[in-house]
Each structure stands twice: as C-alpha cells, then as structure tokens.
Specification:
Belongs to the LysR transcriptional regulatory family. By secondary structure, the chain is α/β, with parallel strands linked by helices. The protein has 12 helices and 10 strands. It has helices at about 5-15, 20-25, 30-45, 60-90, 100-120, 130-140, 185-190, 205-215, 230-240, 245-250, 285-310, 315-325, and strands at about 95-100, 120-130, 145-150, 160-165, 170-175, 195, 220-225, 245, 260, 270-280.
Length: about 325
C-alpha cells in the first residue's frame, strides 16, 4: 500500500496541533480538506488513526507511528523552505574564490575571516592561480570570482573587472637589512645582495625584469625561488636577501616587525588589482554579499595604505643620479 506523502504531512499537523482546524491553519489549508484526508486515510488503511472522543485529538498507536513519518516529511519541507530563503538572502551557500597566491594569503584571507564572523552560514572555497588560470576557472564555471591584477589591455568584453587597489610594488627585506638605513643606495648595492625570485607565472616575475631593465642591471643573484608567501617571509627574515613584493602584502606584515620596505622608488607596473567576474546575471547571492564585503574592506585598506605610503621617505634623486653616473651594460 502506497500512501501519499502529503496526506501523512496533514496527519502529522493534526497530531502536532491537537485538532483538524488547527492542523489545517498550520498548513495553510481548509479545515474541510484536512478532515477529508483523515477520513480517507482511515478508510483506506481500515484502522482508526485517532482515539474517538478525545479532545485535543490523540492519535492511536498506528496513527502516532504514521504521524512520525509525516512529521519527518514536514520537517524536511520546512528545512527546504528555510534553505531557499537563506540562499536567496545571501545568508548561506558557497562562494568559490580564486586569487593570486601572495595576495590571497596576506590580504584576502583576513577579509574572509572578518566576513564569516558576520556570515557564518557561507562557506568560502578558495583556490590559487595566476591570471590565465583564474580566467580559465571563470570561463569553466569552477570559480565565482577572481581577485587578480590585470592591465587594461587584458580585459575581455564578456568579463567585468572592478579595480579595488592600484598595483604598487616595493623592495622588501628583513628589518635588520644593511640597506634599510643607508642614505644613498647605488646599483652596486642592489646587485650585491641575493634575491628571492617571484613564483613562476606571477606578474611579479615580469615586474622584476622590468625593474632590472629600467635600472640598467643585467642580472641579480637568485638564491631562492618557488616559495610560498610564508616561506619567502621567513627566508627574508633569516638572510640579507631582497624581494619584490606588492606594497599591500608588505603592509599586511607591518605589525610583526619582521620585514620592512627599502624606501627606494622603483618602476611600477601599469595594472590594477581587482575583482573579476563573468558578465552575466549573477545567480549566487552569497557571492554578491561577499563582493560587497570586499569593496568595503578594500576601501578601508586603500586609505590606510595611502597614508602609510605617504609617510615613507621614498628615495628618487640619489639613486637615479648614481645610476646615470655609472651606467651598466
């Protein structure tokens, strides 16, 4: 015998509320419709489902067992309704975030933490990638949004890019590095110390080459390559090595007093860091809410970085004069 699940739900509602009228009101149905369902169930089963004459209505042993099944169905239905409401409001769901490694680790991960303090029902599924990988992930639907640096010439018509931070690189080192307090920095100083190479595929690789080309430096001694952000920071702390890092990344470590910035104004890339999505009706409210959080966080971060940047006595003339006086092939 196969019973209609809707009939079991109505039976559970009557048991829960103690009356047909009350059960009908709970389900948004008429009293007569629920009453017909109970009568039809009893006739089909051939057994009474409620003890006659009891008010509030009390189920028989069979009625109670069947009511438990209807209660489970009713609970699942209510849970499904709650899931739908929560998803549409952006209070639950999953956000698939992709981003460049160093920036994700240093800057975005704290923002994810602050987001989930107010939105604990949203799961963030984060992955690493450089620009080509992130674009492929967006195209295939594997990620919802990418936080990536890009230049104007790289933008495609079917993608939306919202700049959130200007790309600015700095020369980073340990706080005790000899160059930190040197009044005049010459090219020989840059060449003298070992360097950390950026991750393969990172735009910082091209930035490093452009810096060396602009300054007339043929090459530098690369002693460490391929490390994660934490390993690069630890390497800088334990050596006199130099590394090119985004200013925002170096800024995020300022309170730890382990690495610092050499106040040398180096050539800067022509790109911005921003949020990349596909141009389409966005079907993930949780992602929209997360993007809104990133906007607010980056607005605050941008102001703090600009204030910090303006406090650094960047060296221009002495270094450039030294470069012009002693050109290197």
């Amino acid at each position: 015998m196969k019973l209609d699940e809707r009939h079991l739900v109505q039976l559970a509602a009557v048991i829960e509320t103690g009356g047909v009228t009350e059960g009908a009101a709970l389900l948004g149905m008429t009293q007569s419709a629920v009453s017909r369902t109970i009568s039809m169930l009893e006739k089909r089963i051939g057994e009474q489902l409620f003890i006659p004459g009891r008010r509030p209505m009390q189920p028989t042993s069979l009625g109670e067992q069947l009511g438990q099944q209807g209660k489970a169905i009713l609970s699942s239905s209510r849970k499904a309704d709650e899931i739908i409401r929560s998803f549409k409001s952006g209070s639950s769901g999953r956000v698939r975030l992709g981003g460049v490694p160093f920036f994700i680790d240093a800057v975005i991960s704290p923002m994810v933490a602050s987001f989930q303090r107010s939105e604990p029902g949203i799961m963030i599924d984060q992955s690493y990638g450089n620009y080509p990988d992130l674009m492929a992930g967006l195209e295939s639907g594997q990620i919802d949004l990418a936080v990536t640096p890009t230049g104007a010439s790289d933008l495609k018509a079917d993608y939306a890019f919202e700049p959130i931070l200007s790309a600015r690189n700095v020369l980073a080192c340990s706080v005790g590095h000899p160059l930190v307090h040197k009044r005049t920095i010459a090219i020989e100083d840059i060449v003298h110390y070992p360097w950390v190479a950026p991750l393969p595929g990172s735009p910082l690789v091209l930035d490093l080459h452009n810096i060396l080309l602009t300054l007339g430096i043929p090459e530098v001694s690369i002693r460490y390559a391929g490390g994660s952000l934490l390993s690069v920071i630890n390497y800088l702390i334990g050596t006199d090595a130099l590394a090119i890092l985004p200013l925002s990344v170096a800024f995020s470590f300022r309170r730890e007093s382990k690495i610092t910035v050499i106040p040398l104004d180096i050539p800067q890339p022509e790109r911005a860091l921003g949020i990349m999505t596909k141009r389409k009706p966005y079907a993930n409210p949780a992602s929209r809410k997360f993007i809104g959080h990133l906007r607010r966080e980056f607005s605050d971060l941008r102001r703090m970085i600009e204030k910090h940047d303006s406090s650094i006595p960047w060296a221009h003339g002495p270094f450039l004069a030294e470069r012009d006086r002693k050109p290197m092939a």
